[in-house]
């Protein structure tokens, strides 16, 4: 099936759950059903429980009637093949299995990435053996700098982050003769 991207997003004209249902892709495929053979355009949408939805334009063009009272589909007055009760049930089971597999895959993925989704833990990772030395503080060095300023719109984020670091004991408030400046740079 050759799929093409639409120039603009289009709204889906079905009752859907959610604020907006849009589709971006479409395709034209050769379709045959009950003596009808035609090239039919389809919008490609991820719709639960359906393989394809045929619209009223297609039904009028080919003289398709739905007889719900007698459980029949008529094409130009002649009955067309439909799924039997057993086939309908097996199709429903197939779709349910596909949905379950999709949900299981989602939960497996969510479980495997839980450590990345749970936020920053307030504990340090376990200590490992250190076989090197990094000198961060040079007691003899004096820094000349101007007092840095944090933009007003970032002050709440900075305050929250400082509180988090202090609660986690990553930072400890102390007095010192001179400290390196901190700079807030918006991304």
From TrEMBL:
Domain of life: Eukaryota
InterPro entries linked to this entry: Peptidase_aspartic_dom_sf
Protein name per UniProt: Uncharacterized protein
Organism lineage string: Eukaryota, Fungi, Dikarya, Basidiomycota, Agaricomycotina
